[in-house]
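2024-03-11 09:14:02 DEBUG pipeline.ingest accepted 1 chain
2024-03-11 09:14:02 DEBUG pipeline.ingest length=188
2024-03-11 09:14:03 DEBUG pipeline.predict start
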Amino acid sequence: MKRNKFIASILTIATTPLISAAQIQKAFQRKEKGFKISAGEGRVHGHIKLKGVNSNILDVKISGKDTDGDLAIFEQTSLSQGKGTPLHIHNAQDEIFYVIEGSYKFQVGDDKHDLTTGDSIFLPRKVAHAWTQVSEKGKMTVIMQPAGKLENFFVTMAALNHEPSQQEIAKIFSDNDMQVVGPPLKID
């Protein structure tokens, strides 16, 4: 019995450097060349047309796959005046929005903010937040750090062949490490 424990201990110790080496190797396998994403284009999925929460169009500019999950950047063309996200939480990602054009209302915790062209807002992880499009049209850059599963959320919502119910939306949020905690933000 002692011999088996000894062998198991030796194997554990012997494989530990291999695990660490694999993690280090992954960090060095990032893309060695930069890349350009042209205006109006999505790098990975083309234009992603959302259903459910709103009918906006998302373009993946930098995929989480490009950064080993460290960062993702999306450009959102907003086509859904008066609509936005339900109040929700990202438990493991910070989110940053930069308004390229148009106007939006954001809620972060209990605070509400009006954003227009050139404004930015930081939404920390674990803090409930929502936004609603105020202007007829708009455009924002959305940055997630780390990338998390938001890209998968967008692809899943776009792939639906129907408008999802609130229960389906909540499940898709949950499947992508987000939690719906309240209704969408109303425009005053």
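2024-03-11 09:14:41 DEBUG pipeline.report The chain is about 25% helix and 35% strand.
2024-03-11 09:14:41 DEBUG pipeline.predict end
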